[in-house]
Amino acid sequence: MKTLNILSGGAAQGLVRSLAPAFEAETGLGIAGDFGAVGAMADRLRAGVATDIVILTAALIATLADEGLVLRSSIADIGRVETALAVRAGDPLARAEDPASLRTVLLAADAIFVPDTKASTAGIHVAKVLAQLGITDAVADRLKVFPNGATAMRHLAESRDKRPIGCTQSTEIISTPGVVLSGTLPPGCALATIYTAAVTTRASAAPQAQRLIALLTSTDASGLRSQAGFISNTTS
After folding, report:
1. Where are the domains of the chain?
2. Class of domain 81-184
3. Cα distances (Å, whole numbers) of residue 113 to 81, 127, 199
4. pTM for this model (two decimals)
Protein backbone atom coordinates (compact mmCIF):
# COMPACT_ATOMS: atom_id res chain seq x y z
CA MET A 1 0.00 0.00 0.00
CA LYS A 2 1.17 3.52 -0.76
CA THR A 3 1.62 5.71 2.27
CA LEU A 4 1.46 9.30 3.40
CA ASN A 5 4.66 10.07 5.30
CA ILE A 6 4.36 11.98 8.55
CA LEU A 7 6.69 13.41 11.19
CA SER A 8 4.80 14.34 14.32
CA GLY A 9 5.09 15.16 17.95
CA GLY A 10 4.02 12.24 20.08
CA ALA A 11 1.09 14.28 21.37
CA ALA A 12 -0.80 13.74 18.10
CA GLN A 13 -0.20 10.02 17.69
CA GLY A 14 -3.46 8.85 19.23
CA LEU A 15 -5.56 11.29 17.20
CA VAL A 16 -3.84 10.41 13.92
CA ARG A 17 -4.33 6.71 14.57
CA SER A 18 -8.04 7.22 15.27
CA LEU A 19 -8.51 8.97 11.92
CA ALA A 20 -6.25 6.66 9.88
CA PRO A 21 -9.02 4.21 8.83
CA ALA A 22 -11.23 7.01 7.46
CA PHE A 23 -8.27 8.60 5.69
CA GLU A 24 -7.24 5.29 4.13
CA ALA A 25 -10.80 4.53 3.01
CA GLU A 26 -11.05 7.93 1.31
CA THR A 27 -7.58 8.23 -0.24
CA GLY A 28 -6.25 4.69 -0.49
CA LEU A 29 -3.14 5.76 1.44
CA GLY A 30 -1.91 4.40 4.71
CA ILE A 31 -0.08 6.65 7.18
CA ALA A 32 3.56 5.94 7.93
CA GLY A 33 6.24 7.86 9.76
CA ASP A 34 7.54 8.74 13.17
CA PHE A 35 6.02 10.22 16.32
CA GLY A 36 8.38 11.59 18.92
CA ALA A 37 9.99 14.62 20.51
CA VAL A 38 9.08 17.67 18.45
CA GLY A 39 12.65 18.97 18.31
CA ALA A 40 13.90 15.66 16.96
CA MET A 41 11.09 15.52 14.37
CA ALA A 42 11.87 19.03 13.15
CA ASP A 43 15.54 18.12 12.83
CA ARG A 44 14.63 15.05 10.77
CA LEU A 45 12.70 17.25 8.36
CA ARG A 46 15.67 19.63 8.15
CA ALA A 47 17.92 16.65 7.44
CA GLY A 48 15.88 15.80 4.37
CA VAL A 49 13.75 12.88 5.55
CA ALA A 50 10.97 12.37 3.00
CA THR A 51 7.84 13.75 4.62
CA ASP A 52 4.44 14.89 3.38
CA ILE A 53 3.01 16.34 6.58
CA VAL A 54 4.33 17.50 9.93
CA ILE A 55 2.45 17.98 13.21
CA LEU A 56 4.49 19.92 15.74
CA THR A 57 4.10 22.83 18.13
CA ALA A 58 2.78 26.04 16.59
CA ALA A 59 6.07 27.78 17.34
CA LEU A 60 8.12 25.12 15.56
CA ILE A 61 5.80 25.09 12.54
CA ALA A 62 6.18 28.87 12.26
CA THR A 63 9.97 28.48 12.33
CA LEU A 64 9.85 25.77 9.65
CA ALA A 65 7.69 28.03 7.50
CA ASP A 66 10.31 30.78 7.85
CA GLU A 67 12.93 28.22 6.80
CA GLY A 68 10.91 27.34 3.70
CA LEU A 69 10.30 23.74 4.78
CA VAL A 70 6.49 23.83 5.08
CA LEU A 71 3.80 25.57 3.04
CA ARG A 72 2.57 28.56 5.01
CA SER A 73 -0.82 28.38 3.29
CA SER A 74 -1.37 24.85 4.61
CA ILE A 75 -0.82 25.59 8.31
CA ALA A 76 -3.75 24.76 10.59
CA ASP A 77 -4.02 24.47 14.38
CA ILE A 78 -5.36 21.19 15.75
CA GLY A 79 -5.76 22.24 19.37
CA ARG A 80 -4.12 22.72 22.75
CA VAL A 81 -2.60 19.92 24.81
CA GLU A 82 -1.85 20.18 28.51
CA THR A 83 1.13 18.70 30.30
CA ALA A 84 -0.13 16.32 32.96
CA LEU A 85 0.65 13.70 35.58
CA ALA A 86 0.16 9.98 35.07
CA VAL A 87 0.03 6.95 37.34
CA ARG A 88 -0.21 3.24 36.66
CA ALA A 89 -3.73 1.90 36.26
CA GLY A 90 -4.85 0.80 39.72
CA ASP A 91 -2.50 3.09 41.64
CA PRO A 92 -3.92 5.96 43.72
CA LEU A 93 -4.26 9.17 41.74
CA ALA A 94 -1.65 11.85 42.39
CA ARG A 95 -3.28 15.25 42.78
CA ALA A 96 -1.41 18.54 42.74
CA GLU A 97 -3.52 21.64 43.35
CA ASP A 98 -0.60 24.06 43.68
CA PRO A 99 3.20 24.11 43.32
CA ALA A 100 3.72 23.04 46.92
CA SER A 101 1.56 19.93 46.56
CA LEU A 102 3.21 19.12 43.22
CA ARG A 103 6.58 19.28 44.96
CA THR A 104 5.30 16.87 47.60
CA VAL A 105 3.93 14.47 44.97
CA LEU A 106 7.18 14.40 43.01
CA LEU A 107 9.34 13.96 46.10
CA ALA A 108 7.14 11.06 47.23
CA ALA A 109 7.67 9.17 43.96
CA ASP A 110 10.50 6.65 43.76
CA ALA A 111 10.56 6.87 39.93
CA ILE A 112 9.54 9.74 37.64
CA PHE A 113 8.98 8.80 33.98
CA VAL A 114 9.40 11.70 31.52
CA PRO A 115 10.21 12.32 27.85
CA ASP A 116 13.44 13.83 26.51
CA THR A 117 14.22 16.86 28.68
CA LYS A 118 16.08 18.62 25.86
CA ALA A 119 14.04 17.93 22.71
CA SER A 120 10.44 17.26 23.76
CA THR A 121 7.91 19.92 24.75
CA ALA A 122 6.82 18.18 27.94
CA GLY A 123 10.31 17.06 28.91
CA ILE A 124 11.76 20.55 28.61
CA HIS A 125 8.91 21.83 30.74
CA VAL A 126 9.39 19.12 33.38
CA ALA A 127 13.03 20.14 33.73
CA LYS A 128 11.95 23.76 34.22
CA VAL A 129 9.35 22.80 36.81
CA LEU A 130 11.82 20.70 38.79
CA ALA A 131 14.19 23.66 38.87
CA GLN A 132 11.32 26.01 39.80
CA LEU A 133 10.39 23.74 42.71
CA GLY A 134 14.02 23.45 43.78
CA ILE A 135 14.12 19.65 43.56
CA THR A 136 16.25 18.98 40.46
CA ASP A 137 19.09 17.43 42.45
CA ALA A 138 16.78 15.70 44.93
CA VAL A 139 15.02 13.66 42.21
CA ALA A 140 17.90 13.30 39.75
CA ASP A 141 18.48 9.62 40.54
CA ARG A 142 14.74 8.87 40.21
CA LEU A 143 14.25 10.59 36.86
CA LYS A 144 13.76 8.07 34.06
CA VAL A 145 14.11 9.84 30.72
CA PHE A 146 12.94 8.34 27.42
CA PRO A 147 13.06 9.57 23.79
CA ASN A 148 9.38 10.57 23.84
CA GLY A 149 6.32 10.65 26.06
CA ALA A 150 4.68 7.55 24.61
CA THR A 151 7.75 5.46 25.37
CA ALA A 152 7.99 6.94 28.86
CA MET A 153 4.35 6.06 29.53
CA ARG A 154 4.78 2.49 28.28
CA HIS A 155 7.66 2.05 30.70
CA LEU A 156 5.60 3.59 33.50
CA ALA A 157 2.85 1.06 32.79
CA GLU A 158 5.39 -1.77 33.12
CA SER A 159 7.22 -0.28 36.11
CA ARG A 160 7.76 -2.38 39.21
CA ASP A 161 8.74 0.61 41.29
CA LYS A 162 6.69 1.10 44.44
CA ARG A 163 5.45 4.66 43.85
CA PRO A 164 6.14 5.64 40.23
CA ILE A 165 4.68 8.68 38.50
CA GLY A 166 4.86 10.09 34.99
CA CYS A 167 4.69 13.55 33.48
CA THR A 168 4.14 14.23 29.79
CA GLN A 169 1.48 15.53 27.39
CA SER A 170 -2.04 14.46 28.36
CA THR A 171 -2.65 12.99 24.90
CA GLU A 172 0.25 10.56 25.31
CA ILE A 173 -1.09 9.46 28.69
CA ILE A 174 -4.62 8.93 27.39
CA SER A 175 -3.43 6.82 24.44
CA THR A 176 -1.23 4.47 26.51
CA PRO A 177 -2.79 1.33 28.00
CA GLY A 178 -1.87 0.68 31.60
CA VAL A 179 -1.56 4.30 32.70
CA VAL A 180 -4.17 6.80 33.86
CA LEU A 181 -4.36 10.58 33.53
CA SER A 182 -4.03 11.78 37.11
CA GLY A 183 -4.51 15.50 36.54
CA THR A 184 -2.90 18.44 34.81
CA LEU A 185 -0.09 20.43 36.36
CA PRO A 186 -1.30 23.13 38.77
CA PRO A 187 -1.41 26.88 38.12
CA GLY A 188 2.09 28.29 38.25
CA CYS A 189 3.52 25.06 36.81
CA ALA A 190 1.02 24.37 34.02
CA LEU A 191 1.72 24.26 30.30
CA ALA A 192 -0.76 24.18 27.41
CA THR A 193 0.80 23.75 23.98
CA ILE A 194 -0.85 24.41 20.62
CA TYR A 195 -0.16 21.66 18.09
CA THR A 196 -0.28 22.57 14.42
CA ALA A 197 -0.17 20.67 11.14
CA ALA A 198 1.37 21.69 7.82
CA VAL A 199 2.19 20.23 4.42
CA THR A 200 5.91 20.13 3.63
CA THR A 201 7.29 21.97 0.64
CA ARG A 202 8.70 18.73 -0.77
CA ALA A 203 5.57 16.63 -0.23
CA SER A 204 5.04 13.91 -2.82
CA ALA A 205 1.36 13.65 -1.87
CA ALA A 206 0.44 17.24 -1.07
CA PRO A 207 -3.31 16.98 -1.85
CA GLN A 208 -3.67 13.94 0.39
CA ALA A 209 -1.61 15.63 3.13
CA GLN A 210 -3.95 18.62 2.97
CA ARG A 211 -6.90 16.25 3.21
CA LEU A 212 -5.51 14.67 6.37
CA ILE A 213 -5.15 18.13 7.89
CA ALA A 214 -8.78 18.83 6.98
CA LEU A 215 -9.85 15.64 8.73
CA LEU A 216 -7.73 16.39 11.82
CA THR A 217 -9.22 19.87 12.18
CA SER A 218 -12.80 19.20 11.04
CA THR A 219 -15.88 19.82 13.13
CA ASP A 220 -16.81 16.16 12.65
CA ALA A 221 -13.58 15.14 14.41
CA SER A 222 -14.15 17.40 17.43
CA GLY A 223 -15.25 14.44 19.54
CA LEU A 224 -12.16 12.44 18.59
CA ARG A 225 -9.93 15.41 19.39
CA SER A 226 -11.54 15.76 22.79
CA GLN A 227 -11.23 12.04 23.53
CA ALA A 228 -7.56 12.17 22.53
CA GLY A 229 -6.89 15.06 24.92
CA PHE A 230 -6.95 18.07 22.61
CA ILE A 231 -8.68 21.23 23.81
CA SER A 232 -10.24 23.73 21.42
CA ASN A 233 -8.16 26.88 21.02
CA THR A 234 -11.26 28.88 21.82
CA THR A 235 -11.61 27.24 25.22
CA SER A 236 -10.47 29.47 28.06
Report:
1. 3-80+194-228, 81-184
2. alpha beta
3. 18, 12, 32
4. 0.87
